[in-house]
């Protein structure tokens, strides 16, 4: 049974300097909290979200009984990250379309919607913004920072950018940077959006339209990369839609997998902002803590002070286990305390959101040990 979650928002007047040289001011961050902060503030856990997720990490909204948070199977009373013991914070990233200031909001300097003028943001910028919100909440140090996929990159970044503020970093189904193939997938998805006639250079808000065709294709591309070949074949195989006879058409839907992808694309285009998609995928591309150290990840991770748990999944070909092992190796070379679990799960990249008992068991055990440390 899920608990009731309450969406919150915090406003910031002061400018936030961004990695690209710009800054943003008069912005809002949407967030939610679960559980209670203990007397010495030592039980706070920050959860960082992935590309199309948000601050709504767990629970349901009182007026929306089917609005479960995206990691509700992981976080809540009695769950692996137990909100009876931890004070959990989810924060929506700047530039998102789920409550924090983003391209669809008004630029205070012009009075017009930001649109294409919203500044480029990076993982480092998100972490800096999150740190400001935690300052306002009176949280000086995190018991843990936790994230999967792009959220895992943020957790890793937290441990490097604010090493004295992080006791544990939990990095799930992630990587120290994107390889060329991942950047290529992101670029194809972006081109689908920017070449949509309804995109209007990113200022489609002024025209009262949405580049739905581009968003649909972008989501279809992404969804293919989140699933393993085994799961896709198991769920759909070569099943035909609506019968056994081929239509011999180049444009009709013939196979069940086509129907599924179109459904996912249609749903995504109804709620996700096109400029946000461009911003977040570019932030993924840019993340590379080793870049400032001539590509040497071991040197990049030398700043860390946290203890780490890394989790990967054998069939995740977008963020393959080898990428997690790169991080593990570099942390060990820095003599950091690292736990690593490689889960043999069939679900591909999406496994980090699912209910594999071995995965949930690893997470529960690790957070049990954190709880004992702060008790």
TrEMBL record:
Organism of derivation: Comamonas antarctica
Gene3D superfamilies given in the database record: 1.10.1740.110, alpha/beta hydrolase (3.40.50.1820)
Binding positions for substrate per the UniProt entry: 219, 350
Subcellular location: Cytoplasm
Record key words, sorted: Acyltransferase, Amino-acid biosynthesis, Cytoplasm, Methionine biosynthesis, Transferase
Occurrences of domain AB hydrolase-1 (ranges): 43-354
This protein's pathway: Amino-acid biosynthesis; L-methionine biosynthesis via de novo pathway; O-succinyl-L-homoserine from L-homoserine: step 1/1
Family the UniProt entry places it in: Belongs to the AB hydrolase superfamily. MetX family.
Protein name (database record): Homoserine O-succinyltransferase
SUPFAM superfamilies referenced in this protein's UniProt entry, alphabetically: alpha/beta-Hydrolases (SSF53474)
Gene Ontology biological process terms from the UniProt entry: homoserine metabolic process; methionine biosynthetic process
HAMAP family, per the entry: MetX_acyltransf
Entry's Gene Ontology cellular component terms: cytoplasm
Domain of life per record: Bacteria
Entry function: Transfers a succinyl group from succinyl-CoA to L-homoserine, forming succinyl-L-homoserine.
Keyword Iron: no
Site (Important for acyl-CoA specificity): 318
Enzyme class: transferase
Oligomer and partners: Homodimer.
The gene coding this protein: metXS
């Amino acid at each position: 049974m899920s608990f009731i979650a309450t969406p919150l928002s915090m406003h910031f007047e002061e400018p936030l300097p961004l990695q690209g040289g710009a800054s943003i001011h008069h912005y809002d961050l949407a967030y939610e909290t679960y559980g209670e902060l203990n007397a010495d503030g030592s039980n706070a856990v920050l959860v960082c979200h992935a590309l199309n997720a948000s601050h709504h990490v767990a629970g349901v909204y009182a007026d929306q009984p089917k609005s479960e948070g995206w990691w509700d199977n992981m976080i809540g009373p009695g769950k692996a990250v137990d909100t009876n013991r931890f004070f959990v914070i989810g924060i929506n990233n700047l530039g998102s379309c789920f409550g924090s200031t983003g391209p669809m909001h008004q630029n205070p300097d012009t009075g017009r919607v930001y649109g294409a003028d919203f500044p480029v943001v990076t993982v480092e910028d998100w972490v800096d913004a999150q740190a400001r919100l935690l300052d306002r909440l009176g949280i000086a140090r995190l018991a843990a920072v936790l994230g999967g996929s792009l959220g895992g990159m943020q957790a890793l970044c937290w441990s490097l950018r604010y090493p004295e503020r992080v006791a544990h970093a939990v990095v799930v189904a992630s990587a120290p940077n994107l390889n060329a193939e991942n950047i290529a997938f992101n670029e194809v998805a972006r081109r689908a959006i920017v070449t949509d006639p309804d995109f209007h250079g990113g200022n489609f808000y002024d025209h009262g339209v949405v580049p739905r065709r581009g968003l649909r294709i972008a989501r279809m591309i992404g969804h293919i990369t989140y699933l393993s070949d085994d799961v896709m074949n198991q769920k759909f195989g070569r099943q035909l839609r609506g019968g056994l006879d081929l239509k011999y058409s180049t444009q009709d839907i013939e196979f069940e997998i086509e129907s599924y992808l179109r459904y996912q694309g249609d749903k995504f285009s109804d709620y996700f902002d096109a400029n946000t998609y461009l911003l977040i995928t570019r932030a993924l591309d840019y993340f590379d803590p080793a870049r400032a150290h001539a590509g040497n990840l071991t040197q990049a991770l030398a700043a860390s002070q946290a203890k780490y748990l890394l989790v990967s999944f054998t069939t995740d070909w977008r963020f393959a286990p080898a990428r997690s092992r790169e991080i593990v190796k570099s942390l060990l070379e820095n003599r950091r305390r690292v736990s690593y679990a490689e889960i043999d799960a069939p679900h591909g990249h999406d496994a980090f959101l699912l209910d594999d008992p071995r995965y949930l068991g690893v997470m529960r055990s690790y957070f049990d040990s954190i709880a004992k440390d702060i008790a």
